[in-house]
């Protein structure tokens, strides 16, 4: 039995992430664990005049909202075991701690979408969770609440961590899916084709025992965000898989330019897998 951890701030967007996670869990005997985090350190700094009674009121309200959220989800998904908790601390630290304590398999977290974007579509909280989480993180964009997993894109850059990440992903989802492994390059198609062909065997070997079907694609693109966006819509992908390596990678992947290009359509969920050999 797998456990999905879903951080929530009780907003509609967070509720959409709950629905996505529930859709993923239905029919697989998986559990949902909801987590709300309130950062008392930040709040005390911003509102030093707040009293202990005011804090107690905030905690009571959070408990009430959590109970209501669990009831609402349980009514829609009676076959799923759903639990919840409220914690003090920062989102990244609280999610990491809860994930370890609850033996979580995947964190499913809503992200900021095109509307309200300031610096990056992931937002600081989601990026912190991806960095600190001991397990994979699925970043669910605004407006997406229905789970679909039939065509998934996997961005390949010929790094050994991608082998482990692909194996972990197929084990995690545990269902038949077409996985399009694609590499974006700036020039030198013949050289890139030869390189991809060498890696095809390594990827196929690692997934030979799964129910997934692998497809390999090359695409020329000097702009990483635009190239990924085009691949999503060209191939009809309903999710992406990434192996996060460093902050600059995220800055390029989730840039303002990408959001401008796809603002008229929702961004697909992105599964950030943990890969060995970084």
UniProtKB/TrEMBL annotation:
- In this chain the UspA domain maps to 1-141
Q: Which InterPro entries match?
A: Universal_stress_UspA (IPR006015), UspA (IPR006016)
Pfam families membership: Usp
Q: Known SUPFAM superfamilies for this protein?
A: Adenine nucleotide alpha hydrolases-like
Q: Name the protein family.
A: Belongs to the universal stress protein A family.
Q: Give the PANTHER family listed for this entry.
A: STRESS RESPONSE PROTEIN NHAX, UNIVERSAL STRESS PROTEIN UP12
Q: What is this protein called?
A: Nucleotide-binding universal stress protein, UspA family
Q: Which organism is it from?
A: Parapedobacter koreensis
């Amino acid at each position: 039995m797998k456990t999905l951890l879903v951080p929530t701030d009780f907003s509609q967007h967070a509720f959409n992430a709950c629905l996505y996670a529930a859709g993923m869990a239905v029919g697989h005997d998986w559990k949902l664990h909801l987590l709300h985090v309130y950062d008392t350190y930040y709040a005390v700094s911003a509102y030093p005049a707040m009293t202990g009674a005011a804090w107690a009121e905030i905690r009571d309200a959070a408990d009430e909202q959590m109970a209501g959220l669990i009831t609402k989800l349980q009514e829609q998904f009676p076959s799923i075991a759903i639990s919840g908790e409220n914690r003090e601390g920062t989102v990244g630290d609280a999610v990491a701690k809860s994930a370890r304590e609850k033996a979580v398999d995947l964190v499913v977290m809503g992200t900021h979408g095109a509307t309200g974007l300031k610096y990056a579509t992931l937002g600081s909280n989601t990026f912190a969770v991806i960095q600190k989480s001991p397990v994979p993180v699925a970043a669910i964009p605004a407006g997406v609440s229905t789970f679909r997993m039939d065509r998934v894109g996997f961005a390949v850059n010929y790094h050994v961590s991608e082998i482990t990440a692909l194996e972990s992903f197929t084990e995690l989802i545990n269902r038949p899916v077409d996985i399009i492994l694609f590499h974006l390059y700036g020039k030198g198609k013949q050289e890139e084709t030869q390189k991809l062909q060498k890696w095809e065997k390594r990827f196929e070997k690692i997934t030979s025992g799964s129910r997934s079907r692998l497809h390999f694609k090359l695409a020329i693109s000097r702009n990483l965000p635009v190239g990924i966006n085009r691949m999503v819509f060209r191939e009809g992908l309903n999710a992406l898989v990434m192996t996060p390596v460093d902050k600059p990678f995220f800055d390029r992947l989730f840039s303002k330019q990408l959001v401008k290009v796809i603002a008229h359509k929702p961004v697909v969920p992105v599964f950030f897998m943990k890969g060995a050999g970084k």
